[in-house]
Specification:
single chain, mainly beta, Elongation Factor Tu (Ef-tu), domain 3, SH3 type barrels, six-stranded mixed β-sheet, 1 helix, 14 strands, elongated
């Protein structure tokens, strides 16, 4: 990436016409969360959220904010400190400014995601897919994924705006087909 480009349309949405569910389209992928200022020159201590921490060496621009709206910053340098990465962003030159960014996400545009092996997917790619049972019954659309300590939980919303919570475990999650926009699950006893 050579400049602070990336998705610019804040009104992009993912919708499921059959259920009336409308979700904002994800524009960015979080690679870190700003924990605090580090020192007095604007350096940021960032908790790493990516499975590809080596990307800090090749990333020129990051976006600080939330997953639908963020401001671009040129990444001037990075270094590792204990379990965090310390970032120096162009325009953030003192502790006061760095402290104002605490808690925000450090992100890259979705288009800059590291390519995954065949059959793998990012969680953001699942939001908006239709969810069906192994018997062919449509449960609704995946509207959110709750990341818990044990396993992720899929939030599926049906046509009546009711939510169904499904654990993302092998006994329940049977297949994901991004080409068909479809997730197939098996409902085990006591799930719904």
């Amino acid at each position: 990436m050579t400049g602070p480009s990336g998705p610019t349309n804040a009104n992009n949405v993912v919708s499921d016409k059959s259920s009336g569910v409308v979700q904002p389209e994800l524009r960015y992928l979080a690679i870190g969360r700003i924990v605090r200022a580090h020192g007095i020159r604007g350096e940021l201590s960032v908790a790493v959220l990516t499975d590809f921490p080596e990307r800090f060496s090749s990333t020129e621009w990051v976006f600080v904010g939330n997953q639908t709206e963020a401001d671009p910053y040129r990444l001037q340098k990075y270094r590792w400190h204990k379990k965090h990465v310390l970032l120096t962003l162009e325009g953030v030159s003192d502790r006061t400014h760095a402290e104002q960014l605490a808690g925000q996400l450090v992100q890259v545009p979705v288009e800059d995601a590291v390519p995954l092996p065949e059959g793998s997917y990012y969680l953001y790619q699942l939001v908006g897919l239709s969810v069906f049972t192994t018997t062919g019954e449509r449960l609704g659309m995946l509207v959110d994924i709750l990341e818990t300590g044990a396993n992720d939980v899929f939030v599926v919303q049906n046509e009546m705006q009711q939510e169904i919570l499904l654990p993302s475990i092998p006994d329940v999650l049977k297949s994901v087909d991004l080409n068909q926009n479809r997730i197939t699950v098996e409902l085990i006893d006591g799930l719904i």
